[in-house]
Amino acid sequence: MPDAADVDVASVYSAIEKSAGLLDVTASRDVVWPVLTAFEDALPQAVIAFRVATNARHEGDFDTRFTLPKDIDPYSVALANGLIEKTDHPVGDLLADLQRLCPIDSYGVDLGVVSGFKKIWVYFPAGEHETLDRLTGLASMPRSLAGNTAFFTRYGLAEKVDVIGIDYRSRTMNVYFAAPAQCFERDTVLAMHQDIGLPSPSEQMFAFCERSFGLYTTLNWDTMEIERISYGVKTDDPMAFFARLGTKVEHFVKNVTYGVDDVKMVYAAVTSGGEEYYKLQSYYRWHSVSRLNAAYIAARDKETA
C-alpha cells in the first residue's frame, strides 16, 4: 500500500486503470485525470478506495472514491473545474445548506472511470449524529426524507444520521444511519422492506444483514418513496459473501493488488424492481480511523466485542 509520498495523480490514475482492467472496464483518462487533478493537493493524505457493483445499472463502469479535509469545498471545486454543471435543481444547493446547518468532519468524492464526477459525501463528526428533525427543515432536502419520518422513527433511526451522500448525476441522496442492532435481525429486515414496498430479501441477504454494521437509504426529489435500503459488512474475506457475483467480479476480488491484507467493505441491497445486488469496496490507501468507513463502525465493533 503506497505511502503519502508515493501518492500523486499519475500513481493513482495508474492504479485505477489497472484495477478497472480486471473487470474489462477501460478507464477514460479524459474523464478521470481532471477529477484527480482538481483535488491533487489532498490525494497524499486521502483514504482512497475502489468500488465495483454487480447490478446492471453499474455494469461497464468502475468507481473510485477518496476523502477530503473539511476546508476543501468539493462542490465549488467541481464547478470551478468543469466536473459538473451548475444547476437550478435543489441538489445543487444541498451541500451549502448542510454546511450552514451542521458541523462537518470531512468530505468524500466519488468518480466513475467512464461516467466521471458523481457524488459528494458529507461526514458529520464521529458520534455527533444529525437528526431528521433538523435535516428535514432544509429547503433543498428531498421531501421524501420528511415524508418517511414515521418509518425512520419506528426503527430507531430518526436521530442517528451519520453521513449524507449527494449524487449529482442520478439526483439521488443517500442517508447513512448508526442503526441499532435490531435493524439487522431477520424479522426487522423483512418488516422494513415490507413497510416501504420493497421485495423480500433472499436467504443469502438475510444472512448478510446479520453481520452488518450499518445501513443507508436512497431517496430522490421526484417521489416520496425510499428507493432502497443497503446494508454494509466489513470483512477480510469478501469471497465469503460472493457466491453469485459472476466471473468478472470474482476475478477482481482475487486479483486486485491494493490493500490485499486490509479490511474490505461489502454492501447489499434490493431494488424496487426486485434486483438484489452487491458492492465491493477495496482500499488502495487505507487509514484505520477514517470517516470514509462510516462513523458507526467503531461503535458497532464495541457492541459486539
Helices, by number, come to 11
Beta-strand residue percentage: 15-25%
Instruction: Report, as a whole number of angstroms, the end-to-end distance.
Output: 28 Å
Secondary-structure element string: HHEEHHEEHHHEEHHEEHEEH
Question: Structural class, from helix and strand content?
Answer: alpha+beta
User: What is the number of domains?
Assistant: 1
* Global geometry: globular
**Which bin fits the share of residues in helices?**
25-40%
* Major beta-sheet overview: 10 strands, antiparallel, barrel
Q: What is the gyration radius calculated from CA atoms?
A: 18 Å
Contiguous uncertain segments of 5+ residues: 295-305
User: What is the residue-averaged pLDDT?
Assistant: 87
Q: Spatial order of the strands in the main sheet?
A: 1-2-3-4-5-6-7-8-9-10
Explain the overall architecture:
Mean pLDDT is 87; it is low at 295-305. 30% of the residues lie in helices and 24% in strands. The protein is globular, with a radius of gyration of 18 Å. The chain has one domain (4-304). 42% of the residues are buried. The chain is α+β, with helices and mostly antiparallel strands and 305 residues long. It has a ten-stranded antiparallel beta barrel with strand order 1-2-3-4-5-6-7-8-9-10, surrounded by five helices.
